[in-house]
Amino acid sequence: MNVHTYEKVWLGAAMVLIVFFIASVTYGAIGAGVAMVDDSEETIDPDTLGEDDRFGDPRVEQVGDDEYEVYAVARTFVFQPDPIEVPEDSTVTFYITSGDVIHSFSVVGTNANVMVIPGEVATMTVEVDEPGEYGIVCNEYCGPGHHDMEGLLVVQPEDEFELEDDE
Amino acid sequence: MRISPAGLLVVLAFAVPALVQARTVLAFAGVHVSPLQTVLIGLLVLTAVVLWAVAPGSGTEAPSEPNGG
Amino acid sequence: MSAETGSATGVASEGRTYIDQFPGEARLVRTAFWSSFVALGIGGLMGLVQVLHRADVLRVIDSTDYYAVLTLHGVLLALTFTIFFLVGIFTWAITTSLDRGLEDLRFTWAWYGLMAGGTALAAIPILGGLTDAVEMSASVLFTFYAPLQAHPLFYLGLALFVVGTWLAGLDWIRSYLAWRRENPDERIPLPTFMVLTTLGFWYLSSLGVALAVVVFLLPWSLGIWEQVNPLLTRTMFWYFGHPVVYFWLMPVYMMWYLMLPKVSGGKLFSDPLARVVFVLFLVLSTPTGIHHQYLDPGIAEGFKFIAMTNTMFLLLPSLLTAFTVVASMEHGARQRGGTGTFGWLRALPWRDPVFTGMALAGVMFAAAGFSGMVNAGMNINYLVHNTFWIVGHFHLTVGTAVALTFMAVTYWFLPQVSGKRLWNRSVALAQVVLWFVGMVLMSNAMHRGGLDSVPRRTAEPQYRGFEIEPTLGTMAELDAQIVLGGTILFVSLVLFLVVVVMTGLGDRVDDLPANEYAETLSGPEDAPLVLDNLKLWVGIAVVLVVLAYALPLAAIVDRGGLFGPGGSPFPVFVGCLEPTVSASVAFLGDHLPAAVSGWW
Questions:
Q1: What distance in Å separates the CA atoms of residue C390 and residue C147, rounded to the nearest whole number?
Q2: Domain residue spans in chain B?
Q3: Residue C597 pLDDT more than 50?
Q4: Does residue C4 sit within a domain?
Q5: Do C444 and B68 touch (CB under 8 A)?
Q6: Is CB count within 10 Å lower at the N or C end of chain B?
Q7: Closest Cα of chain C to B65: distance in Å?
Q8: Is C570 within 8 Å of A138 when comparing Cβ atoms?
């Protein structure tokens, strides 16, 4: 096969570019620790979330020093709990599922962004630093009121943070 | 004319992404150009291109077009 | 094409136009084009409605109706406009390059009828979503993710449409086999090769969506299944949803390889490399769909990684195409007397809307390639997934690389298939340039908005509890840029429709250029024979698909079951937010009219 020299050079450069991309993504996943949402959680019945230990009562729980877990539910057209309150400089693991259709849970201005699929529990762990209020949007179309679906993530200064009493 | 009218049209078209993206890129470098300024600079640039194109100059005419449909 | 053409792949039509050569086929191609233009017109109008609505400049519909408009926009433009145009181009490519008519035009009209009928059936419930007078709707968008549930007619229409494309493919394969019997030792002509390789991955991938619709979604919408597994049907959608973008793109690449060199005044750089590119698309298009699901729970990281790797390698054929296109254009420019390192650019036929439209579409596709690389990077994807960035990206790909190329080549094809002169070349030129300018403005703002988390697919990206603050400028400014761009695009679209309608109203003339496509500098005799071994490539494609999909699908079914855990269906129609309403729908045994009237 007759391949022009310029074309060979171009082909080589293209391959280098592709390998570089794959390497950089691999580094991001392994080196920088950007873990992907995966299948580590068991499936769950979206019609009976009310009876579930974690999602029957959507809430924030402290599980260690500066470590919190959030059990959140997305439904047409709300997020629960709302607002989600966590202290600054903490590690927060979100467990999110849907009570009806496919939603997303996306914290505005950050890469904390995950699909919420009925039957599946999405998990992601986020390092929370700056205090402030962050919007949460559903960026997957979920029905006629989709544009009304929003929530708030409130990162509070450490001295003001107080977990709501569990009964 | 230094370039054909069609050539001028395409040059003007290419100036639009150049201007729009230049503003975005400058913002990365901390130089903020407002939309109004961008529009004014854009009009200046486009006018300059048109003046350059229609000015009688030594530029060669673009080759003639085939009668494509 | 005859045996002695050697490196000259171009076709001698003895100076005749396509309608003179194949009047019956020309009628089919013309009809397919008109179907495509009708979809383009309606879909484009919906686009303008959305742009004005989102920015809150003009809201002619309720926000709850926005999603019916969006469904219409997505389905009509992404499926109807593109695929009707494709069947026109592919019919032209097969008949022209094999130099023989289709075997039986009755069969040809049958598949056209199936596609048109399917589109009409799917459109009824979508339009029903816009009015309260009709009790049916299908506001499920182009992706129809369960448990959002459309009226059964939507799924039925979709299935018929896909079957129509399968029969169209059989029609072309039949032509090829008939040609092969008469020419056992010839190389497959390049345009036919492009059609066959494209069909290879189209059959492979559309099988996924057909199964999702026929086995799961259609029976579910009729009440036969109580629930489906949303992750499974979603994965089956994306199994088709990524290859379908290459289905739109392959006729565009065909045009860039066959027509762009010709209208530039030169020859295609390399026939063998063109074949390599199409083989790569056949092999790699399908095992990549999971890259649309990087953010999905329930799919292991390893499977996402495999999809990411395949996707990155899919950059290769596009990068090779970028080289060939520019090299062929430069060759053409130098044939026309162009000189200098960049001076040859001036010698290109910018006056010709066919050339200028395709060249501008190519430039925009390069930009789209870069945003696509960002999307493919699975960790950067977290930042942009489902944001306005994605909308900006695919308005550069399908919205410009595909749509603008289709519009540009229409200015060449329409005279060929109608025998009428293009109505006005200057208006046509202005049209393609306006599309380019409008899309630059709109997609730039969409990309920027997406980086700041502005979501896609929403009627009102304005929130009560917080405000999205762009890194650069203000939301008002981004909105203004999008409205300006969208309006320019709509003006361009109207100009396009004016040109094609006025051309159609013209009289037959007999001095049109002949039906020809580009010759090659390096012809098929330079291409190894193995490239034409389509069975081998289809085999490899199947193996790669099995490797990429068998385990993820098995895992999804193993975890949730074939039919769950999906939860109750969620019929989408205006005014009802009650997810359990579907309990009242017809079950198996009820006849359809009852199902329709009982359907909410």
A1: 23
A2: 5-54
A3: no
A4: no
A5: no
A6: N
A7: 6
A8: no
Q: What was the pLDDT predicted at C277?
A: 96
Taking the C-alpha atoms of residue C122 and residue C401, their distance in angstroms, rounded to an integer, is 26
- To 10 degrees, the CA torsion angle through C327, C329, C331, C333? -140
- State the pairing for strand pair C148-149/C570-571: parallel
| Distance between CA atoms of residues B49 and C273, nearest Å | 39
User: Which of C382, C467, C577 shows the shortest C-beta gap to A145?
Assistant: C577
Q: Inform me whether the C-beta atom of residue B67 falls under 8 Å from chain C C-beta atoms.
A: yes
List b or e across C160-185, with b for residues whose CB sees 16 or more CB atoms inside 10 angstroms: bbbbbbbbbbebbbebbeebeeeeee
Q: CATH number of the domain at C335, please.
A: 1.20.210.10
Q: Which residues contact C61 (CB under 8 A, 6 or more apart)?
A: C49, C53, C69, C130
Which residue in the set B24, B35, B68 is minimally distant from C349, CB to CB?
B68
The C-alpha of B1 sits at a distance from chain C's nearest C-alpha, in angstroms, of 13
Q: Determine if the peptide bond prior to A77 is cis (ω within 30°).
A: yes
Tens-place pLDDT, residues C254-268: 999 999 999 999 999
How confident is the model over C115-136, as pLDDT tens digits?
Answer: 999 999 999 999 998 887 778 8
The total number of structural domains in chain C stands at 1
A71-80: buried (b, 16+ CB within 10 Å) or exposed (e) per residue?
bbbbbbbbbb
- Closest residue, chain C, to B59 (C-alpha): C346
> Are the C-beta atoms of residues C170 and C199 closer than 8 Å to each other?
no
Catalytic, out of C246, C406, C411, C496: C246
Cβ contact, residue pair A108, C269, below 8 Å? no
Measured CA to CA in angstroms, residue C294 lies from C238, C289, C378 at distances of: 12, 10, 6
In chain C, % of residues over pLDDT 70: 93
Is the residue at C393 inside a domain? yes
Query: What span, in angstroms and rounded, lies between the C-alpha atoms of A137 and C531?
Result: 49
Report how far apart the first and last C-alpha atoms of chain B are (Å, whole number). Answer: 25
> Is C591 a residue of the active site?
no
Residue C212 DSSP label: I
Q: Which of C360, C350, C352 is nearest to C325 (CA)?
A: C360
The answer, for C430 touching chain B at a CB cutoff of 8 Å, is: yes
Alpha helices, DSSP H only, in chain A? 5-30
Interface touch C272/A29, C-beta < 8 Å: no
Question: ipTM, 2 decimals?
Answer: 0.94
Q: DSSP E strands: which ranges in C454-524?
A: 520-522
Residues of B in contact with C437 (CB under 8 A): 13, 16
Q: Do C386 and A46 touch (CB under 8 A)?
A: no
For A40-95, how does the pLDDT look when each residue is reduced to its tens digit (9 = 90+)? Answer: 899 999 999 999 999 999 999 999 999 999 999 999 999 999 999 999 999 999 99
Return the pLDDT at C10.
47
- From the list C64, C463, C567, which residue is nearest A119 (CB)? C567
Residue C9 lies in a domain: no
